[in-house]
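Handout for the seminar on molecular recognition.
Each group receives one record of this type.
Step one: identify the two inputs.
Step two: read the structure output and locate the region that could contact biotin.
Step three: write two sentences on what you found, then compare them with the reference statements printed after the record.
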Amino acid sequence: MDTSLLEFIDQVDSTNTYLTGQIASGRDLPQLHTVVCRQQTAGRGMRGNTWTSRPGDSLTFSILLRSDMLQGKQQFAVSELAAWAVMRTFASYMTDDQKQQLRVKWPNDIFYGDRKLAGILIEHSLTGARVDYSVIGIGMNINDEAFPPELPSAISLRMITGRSLEPMEVLIRLHSELSQLLPDFLLGRYQDVHRHYMKYLYRRDGFFPFTDIQGQFRAQIKDVTPEGRLVLQREDGWERAYAFKEVRFDAE
Ligand SMILES: O=C(O)CCCC[C@@H]1SC[C@@H]2NC(=O)N[C@@H]21
């Protein structure tokens, strides 16, 4: 791996938009480059949602990752890598009991019990069948003491551990977790991140309610494919692999 850089910006619309724009305008960036900001004014989330964050409370950053080996049909490995690195980072501040509550909700929300602790937005650029680069945008709730009523299921690390942290310290810890996972990943070995992703998958065991275009049904999670489709099996044995917008989890 060539050099890795950390770039700090005080305020930006979105670290994902900024980083993607820098690449598009021809800036020469290393294989791994992180942009972190104190305040994001137009943070973007999944499903076209906005991502709001509070300076000092949240950690908002994007990582450019170029992986020579990664094919488009394996692109979900990047989500699995990011989710695993974020979970390991959170886990490093938690007691053993607290760690048991950490989960990744497909495709890549980090949950503590039934509450969201971090969100990840990954944008890939493909050249032919190969992933040229990925921009991994991560928003981690670190020091928030409470959330507005429109975010009833959000939680922060501080609400769990009772301890406030310097967000940059958390980012440095995440980089150290990532640097342990990257050597295998860059060699095209994705089995470990997939195994961990499946092990910590939210609602992994048993039947739960989901909704697709035809309505509500109960199913169990069988697998997540290398492209990132969620494979669900219904109680009658019928299986289908869903893309992100084709299915949603329902409350029990
Ligand atoms: O909807 C989600 O859960 C994904 C949220 C991702 C938010 C992060 S914050 C840093 C990066 N920049 C963005 O605009 N979005 C991601």
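Reference statements: The radius of gyration is 18 Å. The mean pLDDT is 96.
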